[in-house]
Amino acid sequence: MTTIVVSGKGGTGKTNVAALIVRIISERKVTLAIDADPDTNLAGALGASIRKTVGDIREGFLDEKDKLPPETDKQAHFEYRLMGIIE
């Protein structure tokens, strides 16, 4: 697994650089791109639409975690919810 992080000051073109990197890598192998910016512009730069963000999943999980049966593996449940937004 390869991890690439694009960071820097606002307005420097990080989203465009990240989108180009994702497009190039995704031509060769399956690629997961995560946009940690609250503005979530990466999906638009890639021509994708967002159904839910990781933040949405986290908030939903926090709302329901106390309602889960005690034997529920909360980490596994969160990962299951997260995988539900990845196609």
From TrEMBL:
Transmembrane segments: none annotated. GO terms for molecular function: ATP binding. It holds the Pfam family CbiA. It comes from the Archaea. The keyword Nucleotide-binding applies. Gene3D superfamilies: P-loop containing nucleotide triphosphate hydrolases. Keywords: ATP-binding, Nucleotide-binding. Residues 4-51 form the CobQ/CobB/MinD/ParA nucleotide binding domain. This is ATP-binding protein. It comes from Candidatus Syntropharchaeum butanivorans.
